[in-house]
Amino acid sequence: MRSVLIGTAVLALSAFAVPADASTTKVAYGWAWRVGGTELRITPMTAAYRRPHYTFHPIRGAKELRLDYSKAAYRRVTVACDLKETEGRVAVDRKGLGTTACKPRDLSFTLDQSPTSVRVEYRGSKAVKVSELFANTPRTRSVRGTIKRIDDSTLLFTGQGTKIKLGYTWVTTFHRTTKGCGDGWLSGRPVNADRNGLGKKTCRNVHLTAALKNVRHPVLVKLDYTPDVNQVHDVWEVFGDA
Q1: Mind listing the pLDDT tens digit for each residue in 99-129?
Q2: How far apart are CA 137 and CA 34, in angstroms?
Q3: What gap in Å lies between CA 112 and CA 239, rounded to an integer?
Q4: What are the DSSP E strand ranges found in 90-215?
C-alpha cells in the first residue's frame, strides 16, 4: 500500500515538473541583432575556430531564436565595455571568446552599433551568457528584388527565387530618386534617378524607415547586403521597372 502511495505522489509531482528544454542550457553561434529592449534575435549557425577567427556556415532549416538577455552575463573581446572597437588590444580566451566582464546594458550598446558575432548560452527563451567573438564576414552581394517593412530595422527581401529577412542600421545608406530625402516612396518626378532608374541622392536609414512606413505593398529596389549576417549596407530606390 505504501509503494502505491509513493508512486501516486511521484506522478503528482511530475505533473508540475519544469520541462526539460526549459532547464537545459543550449548553445548557439551566429550573428545577433537587437530586436528592442533587452531582446536579441539570432539564427543558429555552425562554427569552426581557426585562430583568430571563427567561420560560420548556415544550418539548413535553422529557425531564428528570440532571447531575453536582461540577466545574461556578457563577455566582450574589447578590453573595456564601452569601446566601439578593439583599439588594437583584445581580451579573448584560448577558444577565441571574449573575457571582459560586462553587463546587459553593454550588450545593448554593442548591438546598437551593428550585428555582432557571438556564442550564446541559453535556457528556453532566456540568454544566460553571451560571448562576443571575431568571425569572418562573407563578401557583400548586390541583388534586385522587392522589400517590405517588418519593423524599423528589418526588411523582408524577395528576389531570385528566395525570401530573406534582412536588417539595417545607422550605417545603411539609402539612395533616392526623389527630390528630397523625406519624400514618399517614388513621389514626384525622378529628378535624382540615373540612366538605369537607380536613386542617386544619398540619404540615411531613418529616411528609409519613414518611406517604407507609408507603403503597404512590396517596393522594387537594388541593394547590397552581407549574406549570413543578413546586413543591408545600401538600398537604391528604383524608378519604374528600369
Answers
A1: 999 999 999 999 999 999 999 999 999 999 9
A2: 19
A3: 32
A4: 100-102, 116-123, 126-132, 141-151, 154-159, 162-167, 173-176, 201-203
